[in-house]
Each structure stands twice: as C-alpha cells, then as structure tokens.
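Methods, example record. To illustrate the input and output format used throughout this study, we show the complete record for IclR family transcriptional regulator. The sequence lines were provided to the predictor; the line carrying structure tokens was produced by it.
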Amino acid sequence: MPRTSTAVPPPAVIANGNANEPTASAPTARRRRVQSAETGMGILKALARLGGAASLTALAQAVDESTAKVHRYLASMVEEGLVTQDAASQRYVLGPEAIHIGQAALRQCDPIRAGEPALLQLQAELGATCFIAVMGNLGPTILRIEEPPLAVVVNVRAGSVLPLLWSATGQVFMALGAGAALRVQAQQEWARATPRQKAVLPDAAAIDALCLQVRTQGFANVQDLLLPGISAAAAPLRRHDGAVVGALTALGATGGFDARPGGDAVGRLCAAAASVSAQLGFLNASPQR
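The corresponding predicted structure is encoded as:
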C-alpha cells in the first residue's frame, strides 16, 4: 500500500526568525509598535527640552532608559533626518526634518485659535467679560470677546482699540512688548490724559515703575482707571521665543470683580494664559498670581 504524505505547514514562528519563541499575537505586536513609537517620541521631546543638543548619557537619563536602548532609537532617527550627531562633540542635535516639523507647527500658532477654548472656560468660571487682544497698528485690538448673560455695560467689542497706559490689556503690551514705537504711543496717550489719569501716572518715572511692576508680577491689573466702576486684569500670551503675541483679559464691576494680585480671578486668568502660551510653544509658561 503506497504511503501518503501530508504537507505540514511551517510553523508561523519561522516568519519571526526564531522557531523557539512563540509568535506574538496581533494585538500584542501592535502594542509593541505603539510602545516603540512612544519611546521614540519621548527621546525626541527630551532632546528638545534639553535645548536641542545633548549627549547620549544625558538623553538616557532624561528618559530613564539605558544608553544602549536610546542609542538604537537615535540611530533610526538619524536615518530619518530627525536627529543628527555632531562629529566633533558627539552630541545629538535636532535634525532638518525635526526643524521642518517645528516650522510647520509655528505657522499654525495663532493666539486666537489656540486661546479660544481657554477663553470660553475662563468666562464660564469667572462669569465676567473676557477677551483676547493682539497688538494692531493702532494699538491693542480686541479680536475675540465672550460676555456673560448679564454683562457689565462697557464700550468694548471685537475691533475695539484699547490704550496702552490706562487699560490692563495695554499695560501688558507696553511692559512686556518690544519696540520704541510702544513708548512713543504711551507718551502720546499721557499727553492727552485727564487730570485724574495723570494723578495715577504723573510722570515718566511712574510709567517706568508701572512697567517694572507688570514684568515682576507677570500680569497687569487696573481699577477704575480706564472706566469708572470697572476693574480688569490681563495676562500675556507668549509664543515659543517668549515674545508677547496677545493678551488674555477679564473685567467686571469693581464691586464684584476682584482684580487684585492673589485673588481667585487673577489666579485663574494667569493659569489660562499660561496654558495658551504652552500651546503656542512657550516652554517656560508658568502661571503668576
């Protein structure tokens, strides 16, 4: 009787290159790939946090992994252009592809788009009028505003231009912005000021002291200065290099809105502004109070 042979399919483990190890299930394999991606992104982010240049040892310490493991990931990143290695120092630096990714992200850094969720949340938390302003050619200009159902009647709306000296929003730009044009505009505003306003800021030395105060505390606050009976606080929105690209402001009736340093409203405002700044790439964003 002729012998019959039955074809036996080769074990699936042969495809993995090791017949002594079981084949990982599909979900397990996917999870490993995800974990590998997370590790790689963690190394890349650590390199950015270390200033964009670091040794292998420093990177391994930053991500709490072995130098051998980090080196394997860096080799792959070098092949993809995300990282390069300096021949002289042997330090790893961000590569051209990482720079291209960063440039694309920076082009999307819009303070209005990034700040809208925080603006909505802040208005709901404080129950006050809140807005985002940017520096326009005529001065600080409101671009996005949210008001409570029973808003305090103030003559500001989207498109309104605010003064540098007499508004919390303007003081943020004046104290933290750059350029001689801001100082010239402030001087012109002071020349047109009312006696009551000049009593608050009587001379150039007082303006300098105000700017120093805003820089020190990280926000500006006014009470009954621009409009009688209205208090306001404003915090800067910064981009990746620290430049002020906007201001987040909250205002309300002086009797019901506490714009003083250390108050709950100012704390929430500064936390919201720091969150938006972080989204714009400002790594040192930390809320002031």
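Annotations derived from this record:
The chain has two domains: 14-105, 109-279.
Residues 26-49 form the longest helix (24 residues).
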